[in-house]
Amino acid sequence: MACCHDATCSATADPLALDSPGWRRALWIALVVNAGFFLAEMAAGAAAGSAALQADALDFFGDAANYGISLGVASMALAWRARAAAAKGATMLAFAVWVLGSTVWHATQGTLPSAEVMGVVGIAALVANAAVALMLYRYRAGDANMRSVWLCSRNDAIGNAAVVLAAMGVFGTGTGWPDVIVAAIMGGLGLWGGWQIIGHARAELRPGPAGRVLAAG
C-alpha cells in the first residue's frame, strides 16, 4: 500500500478542521461501511474458501478499528495523532502477516474457491470502498493520521478490484492460484503501506521545524 510523495503529503491540515463535523461524519460513515463489510466478507470468504476474500475482510476490520481510533484523536494535538497513525501502521503490518500466512495455507491445501461468490462480493465491496475513498479524498493532504485514513480507503478499493480479477482468474482457469496470488500481493502491499504510515508518523514525532507544535501536544 503506497503513500504519496509529492509536496501535499508534507502539508498539515488546519488544526481546527481536524475535529470538524464534516471530518467526523466522514469517519463515522467509513467506520460503519467497513465494519459491515468485514462481517459480510469474512462469512463469504469462509463459505467460498477464498484467501483473497478473507484477506479483504481482515483489511475491512483493520480499517474499521483505524477509523474508530481516528475519531478518538481527531481533536488531540499533533503528537497524539501521529502516535495513533503509528498504531494504525502497526495494525496494517499485523494484518499483512496474517494474510501471508493464510495464503500459504490455502496454497498448500490446493483450495478451489467459488469464483461466483468472490465476484459478487468483490464488486459490492469495490463500490462501497470507492464511495468512501471519494468521500475522504479532500483529506488526503492532511497530517499522518488523515493520510493514513485516506490511504486505507484508496488501497482498499484497489484491493477489491484485485479480488474481482482473482474471481475471473479462478473461473477461467479452474484453479485456486489466481486467488492465492492476489492474496499474496495484498499481503505484500499491506507490509509496504504499514511501514510507510509508521515512517510518516515518526517524522511528525521527530524534533525539527515542527518542534514547537509537537511540544504543545
TrEMBL record:
Transmembrane stretches, start-end: 26-52, 64-82, 89-105, 117-137, 157-174, 180-198
Annotated ranges, domain Cation efflux protein transmembrane: 27-198
The compartments listed are: Membrane
Entry's Gene3D superfamilies?
Answer: Cation efflux protein transmembrane domain (1.20.1510.10)
Membrane topology summary: Multi-pass membrane protein
Looking at the record's lineage, which domain of life comes first?
A: Bacteria
**What InterPro entries does the entry give?**
Cation_efflux_TM (IPR058533), Cation_efflux_TMD_sf (IPR027469)
Keyword Heme listed: no
| Keyword annotations of the record | Membrane, Transmembrane, Transmembrane helix
Protein name (record):
Cation transporter
Q: Which organism is it from?
A: Paeniroseomonas aquatica
